[in-house]
Amino acid sequence: MQSIRGMHDILPEEIKYWQYIYKQAFKILDTANYKEIRTPIVELQSLFARSIGEGTDIINKEMYTFQDRGERSLTLRPEGTAGIARAVIKHKLCDNNTIAKLWYLGPMFRYERPQQGRQRQFHQLGLEYYGNNHPMVDAETISLAYNILESLQCKSINLEINSIGTEEERSIYTTALQDYLLRYIEDLDEESKQRINTNPLRILDSKNPNIHSILESAPQITNYLQKISLDHFYKLQEYLNELNIAYKIQNKLVRGLDYYNNTVFEIKTPLLGTQDTICGGGRYNNLTTQIGGKQIDAIGWGIGVERLLMLVQKNFLVYEDRICIYIAVPNLEHVKYALKFIPLLQKNGLKYELDLSGCTLKKHLNKANKKQTMICLIIREEEVLNNLITIKWMCKQLQKTYSLDHFDQVLPNIKTEYYSILETEGFDKIKDNLKVAVDISAKSSDNTEI
């Protein structure tokens, strides 16, 4: 049975990278006092039509839209910003001039041609700042994206910025751009010809080399900005300089969604081929009014997690916390005895594995060794009959047997040693220090150092 094209399973070996990215993002954004938000993956289709724009590829080609039993037109969210804007309005998160600093990580859905770094179910890590129009907010949000990427050791990342002005300024520029492109109408590809009347700014984002050549002499949007918009853009550059964040002004950068105004930006890397944009965002001060709320200044960005993973997995290995305790029960008739220990391990947060294969003790020890377990709890007939537990320290080659009543007294030392190893030595050092477990007698029950 195959999964749906463009929608992939995320297997345990990959999940540890997702969890690592989440933890790094949480740490950095929590430090900046951003709060995580989780919105539904299904919204009314009209939310995206009013916010993203009727002339965009997302609306025209890419949305998963269906009728529910109430005959409502619902859509699997193609991006995260519109749903959060709805939540900000619904829950009055910016009433009384308050600031809402929010972030999210979740799945999005677009009907696109699947390729490396682009899937039909993909995931975005995003940030949204509501309630202030100061250009310092723009610089800070960009710096947070940079901090996350740097914490994940992403190399060769380049920031491109632009200003697309207000709606009025953009309208004047759009007319000038249309007039310019009409002079080359016969040289445009079919998609660009269609966009001249519907969404000419999207032609600036074309990947066609011939279009790039035509656009070299096209009017630049910054020449159509008024003083307020230009001042905002210049201040952004000053603050980025102060934060030591290198950037390039890209006059043809417009982003793909209609709700943007003034600041737009992308962070790119040459390490991902044609899918080179790893983070994109900008201002959308009028988005809340477009979907029926009051005007709230806002800015945000989104990072494609699948593309980010392609970089992260090249940079370093993420290891899971090792198993602290492996419970070996050679005779499954004695498995009930193991239940005396499991609640104590859970209470102390000690990662364990209970082996119910019923194999020999030697095979149990080999398995524990391959899993690089710190300790093996051995449960045999004599342990069960005498209320004992045999503990084997795999890395110390030390084995001792305790009464059941004394096991909870041993646990604090086990816990301290386990977390000390995880925190100070790390996975590789532990791995190097582990020795191959020697076989022990199945009948040994006294305190024995081996």
TrEMBL record:
Residues noted as binding L-histidine in the record, renumbered to the chain: 79-81, 110, 124, 128, 255, 259-260
Keywords, alphabetical: Aminoacyl-tRNA synthetase, ATP-binding, Chloroplast, Ligase, Nucleotide-binding, Plastid, Protein biosynthesis
InterPro entries, A to Z: aa-tRNA-synth_II, aa-tRNA-synth_II/BPL/LPL, Anticodon-bd, Anticodon-bd_dom_sf, His-tRNA-ligase, HisRS-like_core, HisRS/HisZ
Superkingdom of origin: Eukaryota
PROSITE patterns: AA_TRNA_LIGASE_II
Reaction(s) this enzyme catalyzes, per UniProt: tRNA(His) + L-histidine + ATP = L-histidyl-tRNA(His) + AMP + diphosphate + H(+)
Biological process annotations from GO: histidyl-tRNA aminoacylation
GO molecular function: ATP binding; histidine-tRNA ligase activity
Subcellular location: Plastid, Chloroplast
PANTHER family on file: HISTIDINE--TRNA LIGASE, MITOCHONDRIAL-RELATED, HISTIDYL-TRNA SYNTHETASE
Similarity section: Belongs to the class-II aminoacyl-tRNA synthetase family.
Protein name: Histidine--tRNA ligase, chloroplastic
Species this protein is from: Titanophycus setchellii
Lineage: Eukaryota, Rhodophyta, Florideophyceae, Nemaliophycidae, Nemaliales
